Amino acid sequence: MSVNNSNDYSAKNINVLKGLEAVRKRPAMYIGDVGTRGLHHLINEVVDNSIDEALAGFNDRVIVILNKDGSCTVEDRGRGIPVDIHPTEKKSALEVVMTVLHAGGKFDKSSYKVSGGLHGVGVSVVNALSEWLKVEVRRDNKIYFQEYRRGVPVENVKQIGTYKGEHTGTKITFLPDKTIFKTTKFNFETVAERMRELAYLNKDVTMILKDERDGSEETFRFKGGLIDFVKYLDEQRTPLHKPIYIEGERDNTPVEVAFEYSDSFSENVHTYVNNINTIEGGTHLIGFRTALTRTLNNYAYKNGLIKENSKITLTGDDFREGLTAVISVKVLEPQFEGQTKTKLGNSEVKSIVETIVGEKLSEYLEENPSVARKIIEKSLKAAEAREAARKARELVRRKNALDSLHLPGKLADCSINDPEHCEIYIVEGDSAGGSAKQGRDRRFQAILPIKGKILNVEKAKLNKVLENQEIQAIIAAIGAGIGEDFDPSKARYGKIILMTDADVDGSHIRTLLLTFFYRHMKELITMGKVYIAQPPLYKVKKGKEEVYAYDDEELEQILKRFKADSKIKTKSPESNEEVEVDEEGHPKGIVITRYKGLGEMNPEQLWQTTMNPETRTILQVNLESAAAADKIFETLMGDAVEPRREFIEKHAKYANLDV
Asked: What's the pTM?
């Protein structure tokens, strides 16, 4: 390896990326990644602009169209992007907005009081990462147009027509650049989930989604706003009362809250700042929780629902069991922090939310004593369960101390102690666990086999969860505790990888595990520590060459590459079918092995395909929309059968399972 002499380092080594070159050079810096998540972020950026027009009071409709050619169209009824000449840039303001980073009306508070867009990168990034983009603006009774190729204008902004009596607005159509993204196929459900969320948060806006590829269409408009949002989230739970709605404003900060209690055991609180899903919470969440705990406690004691000499002391956790809430605040200058930059840091927002919720909730409880009593009774039962869970945790700790087993016996731990360089595979079954233990790199990879299906925590209180042996083993291995003792900073591994079979049972076990982590260790997910292993579905062999395929599409690509003239023969691992061979003993055709279970792979194959960091594929579990995640877990793991059946029927086509 040659090393450049320091004397060679001069001005010519300094690269200056002009215009939108930086975006194309490092796209992940601007949209998070170049996978499915980043692809859909393009739509979100354009839609956010339309929603900002709605927040400013100038737009009541957003239409998103997924076109047959793979492009996407976003159209609104806003004021239309200005097209007159910019005073300093000396070109149309439309072109400035579309080609200059951080250019737009959001930085001028006379144009937008508040605005969304988590990264604030703007539509210019969408332009930079599109093969082509076309924008049409309607304003001043004229229609203007401009086209771009990979962020570069094809021609100047021009007038292409006039209109009368129609709405003003902006229409943007773009085709994601396939040289940038791993996939350029938009998912209808992913787009629909965000549009549904925005419609709940902006009750005066109609969101329309059309899919020209198959004719699908959905319209979202919810006049009840957050009240309808809470009802939607609790659709498969039994509510104890009608949603409580609180609205107020202090110091130019509007606050909206809707919440209700149900018969569930989990807390489902979703927070938003300027329509941004703050999955890590922040000061607005702290303000809400503080007001809720103090106000309910005061009411309970004042009205004799808790006796002065009672041994029971209600805590914040007790008041949050079975709570479903949506908190939405509009902040002039939001400050985001946290692991994923989705945690509100503005200290003044805490007191604003706390004051508004405290005052309004006190009034509501006085006017609705029957609802107040139901909430307090629910909280008292939660306190009893919390005490039982505390005793269960102490019992587990005492047992570990007596047996000198601080870690589960079946855990094959790694030798490195630094959590950031360690990972644990939670593996389905002893057979696959044995292969994983033999195939792993013992320095940094730990293996924890689990037997069968763990408890469905969606239907159980914490004290019952702690009685499950497999869950006990998981808690002990991870080392971060649970419940009141949970501390994500104490996790013993930087990556927690769920590895299950590619069949129906494996999918069920993976869903049970994800439900456990989502309900009881959600911070590990928001910190990006939970992953799903991707073992191959197929091994394709022709002659001496062996290639692994992880889905049917990849299998087809491999088969095309082999360009085999001979007949393809499928061989299952348990089959003794003989394959014709040539003079050298190599198969004449292609042998396709379909893996149904991890145990069918030997340790070397498991390492090569699923565990080697240099060759494996693992999916990071993220909460792009915590509300969507909550809805899915409740649908799949809750008591209601019909919604689960409908979900499975609707999404079965996306599954790749042998039944």
From this structure: 0.73
Vertex 119, ends 116 and 120: CA angle to 5°?
A: 60
Q: Give how many domains the chain has, as a whole number.
A: 3
649 is catalytic: no
Q: Which of 503, 523, 551, 554 is catalytic?
A: 503
For 154-174, write each residue's pLDDT tens digit. Answer: 999 999 999 887 789 999 999
Nearest-angstrom CA–CA distance, 80 and 78: 5
Helix or strand holding residue 76 (H, E): strand 72-76
Q: By the 8 A CB rule, do 20 and 151 touch?
A: yes
Provide the H-helix boundaries in 527-621: 552-562, 603-606
Q: Considering 76, 317, 354, 501, which one is annotated as catalytic? A: 501
Element (H, E) at 41: helix 36-55
Whether residues 254 and 127 fall in one domain: no
Domain that holds residue 507: 412-534+620-654
Local structure of 564: helix, strand or coil? coil
Kindly give, in sequence order, each residue whose CB lies less than 8 Å from that of residue 627, ignoring residues fewer than 6 positions away: 197, 229, 233, 270, 277, 326
Q: Which string of DSSP letters, residue by residue, matches 279-293?
A: TT-BHHHHHHHHHHH
Asked whether residue 570 carries a pLDDT value surpassing 60, the answer given is no
Last residue of some domain: 159, 193, 220?
A: 220
CATH classification of the domain holding 417 = 3.40.50.670
Alpha-carbon span 634 to 423, nearest angstrom: 29
Q: Can you tell me which residue has the tokens 């998912």?
A: 187
Mark whether 317 is an active-site residue: no
Which residues are within 8 A (CB) of 639 and not within 5 positions of it... i.e. 6 or more apart? 236, 459
In a domain, 37, yes or no: yes
Same domain flag for 161 and 232: no
234 contacts: CB under 8 Å, gap ≥ 6: 260, 262, 268, 324
Q: Is residue 585 part of a domain?
A: no
430 a catalytic residue: no
Amino acid letter, 386 = R
Q: Domain boundary at 344, 372, 387, which? A: 387
Q: Which H or E run includes 130?
A: strand 130-139
- Residue that the structure tokens 């229609």 belong to: 143
Active-site annotation holds for 501 = yes
Describe the strand order of the beta sheet including 445-450 as a list of residue ranges: 445-450, 423-428, 495-499, 530-533, 618-620
Buried b (16+ CB within 10 A) or exposed e, 42-67: bbbbbbbbbbbbbbbebbbbbbbbbe
Our measurement of the distance from residue 434's CA atom to the centroid of its chain's CA atoms, rounded to an integer in Å, reads 32
**pLDDT score for 11:** 45
| Number of separate helices (H) and strands (E) present in the chain | 20, 25
Please, are residues 538 and 592 in contact by the beta-carbon 8 Å criterion?
yes
Are residues 237 and 168 part of one domain? no
Beta-carbon contacts of residue 131 (< 8 Å; ≥ 6 apart): 149, 150, 175, 176, 177, 178
Name the catalytic one among 45, 48, 321, 428. 428
Active-site option among 218, 505, 523, 554: 505
- At 193-224, the pLDDT tens digits run 999 999 999 999 999 999 999 999 999 999 99
Domain of residue 350, CATH code: 3.30.230.10
Nearest by Cα to 550 from 482, 610, 633: 610
